[in-house]
TrEMBL record:
Coiled coil: none annotated. Residues 1-222 form the Radical SAM core domain. It comes from marine sediment metagenome. CDD domains: Radical_SAM. Keywords: 4Fe-4S, Iron, Iron-sulfur, Metal-binding, S-adenosyl-L-methionine. This is Radical SAM core domain-containing protein. Signal peptide: none annotated.
Length: 225
């Protein structure tokens, strides 16, 4: 699928790629079948918000769980992944597909971006830190041995030491296998660039980036023992 409907305040994707558009399932499965015939073993389904996959066809609307089930039937494919997911309106059927379909890898990449509810609101993420952690708990309850990855932006406009401390706390609670951390930089044309001053000094952004990666590296070290 292509595009995004979420309009996070820092993100340019909805402006340059437009609204979400889901490809029909038939050509997707045909493409996977061709790749498998050429010897490809791992398939990754891509979308800015892949869990929003939605394709109406007659009396049926295909969602991501349906697409995973169809891909699971393709001969020759051994592993199926999907990225990236958005925490709002995450269909529980996706988790059951991960648990039940042998080719679907138990790996969920689901960005949080911040652990501070104040910053999440400024980012227009439309969920709280507690709601995000509840989703991770549900994923672990349904999918045995699931590995979870997250994304974070540090130094977003107005982020205080307390906001950053909340992000560190969320990372500790989330128990990620790995996470990706980025220093905030304004994107022209976005709401954040228009409405929020880039108030966090570059050196502070750098130190917060280093600290969050240090915390995650400790967690990853325990995870991989």
């Amino acid at each position: 699928m292509r595009g995004c409907n979420n309009f996070c305040s820092y993100c340019v994707v909805p402006y340059v790629r437009g609204p979400e558009v889901s490809r029909p399932p038939a050509p997707i499965i045909e493409q996977i079948t061709r790749l498998a015939a050429d010897g490809v073993k791992q398939i990754t389904l891509l979308g800015q918000t892949i869990n929003s996959y939605n394709y109406p066809a007659g009396d049926k609307t295909y969602r991501l769980a349906d697409l995973l089930e169809m891909a699971n039937e393709v001969e020759g494919v051994r592993w199926i992944r999907f990225i990236t997911s958005y925490p709002v309106d995450f269909d529980e059927a996706i988790l059951h597909a991960m648990a039940d379909l042998p080719k679907v890898c138990p790996y969920l990449h689901i960005p949080a971006q911040s652990g501070s509810d104040r910053i999440l609101k400024a980012m227009n993420r439309r969920y709280t830190a507690a709601e995000y952690l509840d989703l991770l708990a549900k994923a672990r309850q349904i999918v045995d041995g699931i590995a979870i990855a997250g994304d974070f932006i540090v130094g977003f406009g107005g982020e205080t030491d307390a906001d950053f401390a909340a992000t560190v706390e969320l990372v500790k609670k989330a128990g990620y296998k790995n996470c990706f951390v980025f220093k905030y930089s304004p994107r022209p044309g976005t709401r954040a660039d228009d409405k929020l001053a880039d108030t966090v000094p570059a050196e502070v952004k750098k130190q917060r980036n280093i600290e969050l990666l240090r915390v995650q590296n400790e967690i990853s070290g325990e995870y991989n023992k």
